[in-house]
Design brief:
The structure is a homodimer.
Chain A: H1 6-17, H2 28-35, H3 39-51, E1 55-58, E2 64-67, H4 76-84, H5 113-130, H6 134-140, H7 145-154
Antiparallel strand pairs in A: 1-2
Helix pairs in contact in A: 1-3, 1-4, 2-3, 3-4
GO molecular function (chains A, B): DNA-binding transcription factor activity
Pfam families (chains A, B): Rrf2
Protein name (chains A, B): BadM/Rrf2 family transcriptional regulator
């Protein structure tokens, strides 16, 4: 059970964008250089965040990405599911309905209890990530972080 | 983020073994036929459960697998991690320490806050699965289930 490496990228990029002045943007190239990541592949992940409604993209010579919403309204769950999808890790293929022990269809109207327990665990994971916002992260950064972040990021402009 | 298909197999096989008379066993072949699963590959997963201390294997003509512990002491977490390992899904590759924005080593003695939040979510998932036992499942099965399970399973002996 693995999340893609780009999960770390988008969490860090969103945290970085959350430290910019209101309305300021950063390009995929700037963010790629800031973290030494492959630019074209990072750009794809940032576009996924735009599709998820987490980032807004602006075009033009000073164009780039910024948060589409306040940091308090951007959750880890949105960021993670933007790059990994929302499919639960446990997949029930209904093996209870096959083989010599096959249960009859009338006994399988409800979700398999094993799948239900696995879904509950996924739900607590999702709820935890949904309760963690970029604003929570900002509140734990050192007070000097945003100034440093802005200056290092725009050095690539 | 996907669990292997064999996760469903081991949850069902362990639930099946939990319904046998004390001391009774079932072979990999019986379990494979019970659920119409590929025998050799299922046998490998059952061996993984033996290594995890969840099942005991007995040899000989009537040999097979049985629970190594009472059902109340076998958790979903043990079953899931026996086949998928215990590695957390989020991997921190320390991109905070690379690129133009690289933080100095002295600022990176603590785990990255983003990795910490992801680890917390994994912890709540693990705790939920650790709190779910085979005994919980047995208590929710219809009262007729064990008799049916035993007779269908041993039909393959």
């Amino acid at each position: 059970m693995k999340l893609p490496a780009s999960t770390e990228w988008v969490l860090h990029c969103a945290t970085t964008l959350a430290q910019l002045e209101p309305g300021a943007t950063a390009s995929a190239k700037q963010l790629a250089e800031y973290f030494d990541l492959p630019g074209p592949y990072l750009a794809k992940q940032l576009q996924a965040l735009v599709r998820a409604g987490v980032l807004a993209a602006t075009t033009g010579p000073r164009g780039g990405f910024r948060l589409a919403r306040p940091a308090a309204e951007i959750t880890f769950l949105q960021l993670v599911e933007a790059v990994d999808g929302a499919a639960p890790p446990y997949e029930c293929r209904e093996i209870r309905q096959q083989g010599r022990g096959a249960l009859p269809p009338e006994d399988c109207r409800d979700t398999c209890i094993l799948a239900r327990k696995m879904a509950e665990a996924h739900d607590v994971w999702r709820r935890h990530l949904a309760a963690t916002t970029l604003a929570d992260i900002l509140s734990e950064l050192p007070p000097t972080a945003p100034t440093r972040t802005r200056s290092r990021l725009t050095a690539g402009r």
